[in-house]
Design brief:
It contains eight helices and five strands, in the order H-E-E-H-E-H-H-H-H-H-E-E-H. It has a five-stranded mixed sheet with strand order 1-5-4-2-3, sandwiched between helices. By secondary structure, it is an alpha+beta fold. Helix 3 packs antiparallel against helix 4 (106-118) and helix 5 (127-134) packs across helix 6 (141-148). It has a single domain (27-206), classed as Glutaredoxin (3-Layer(aba) Sandwich), CATH 3.40.30.10.
Length: 207
Amino acid sequence: MIQKILLASVFVLCSQATMAQQDTFQEGTHYFKINQVSAPASDNSVEVTVVFSYLCGHCNALEPYIEAWAKRKPENVHLNRMHVNFGGASELFARAYIVSEMTGVAKQSHPALMKAIWQEKKRFRNVDQLADFFTQFGLEKERFMANFESFAADSQLRRVERDVQIFGVTGTPTIIVNRKYRVPNTARVWDVVDFLVARELAAADNS
């Protein structure tokens, strides 16, 4: 009898903890449902996308937290980045990030470019200066320029612009969870992301 009472008490406590967690993060306050949902991953994985800009100081400040989260995330949760194109100089950097992904140097070039802009105060005013910067990662200037102006880069940039519009992104940084939820950059952003990721993983397991 006592054992049954103890088990019942544990169940109540667990249920209350779950309800408390669910009550902590509310749709419309801590995260927002994306109305026009594009297809999420179909392999029981979850995609977390950081929508950023190299011209955004808050994006630079968020980078250490992104890296820390990436080290503790579940293996079947995939992290990627998407550079916005809001016009003007942002297109220059959006294309540069696309080229870094196309050529496989993003892992090295991304933190280096953030550091160059925000710590070393370097200014990149044209594609030629960016091409010179990327040579340190073994990417020849001619190859960078060819990819920068390629049809593939044009197509990827259009996809980025489409997704930014679908996601309802109006500023950076913004986190997108599984192409379903938009999480603004707040003090508890990664707690909200963890909450949504856990929910998406549970849904995938039950599908």
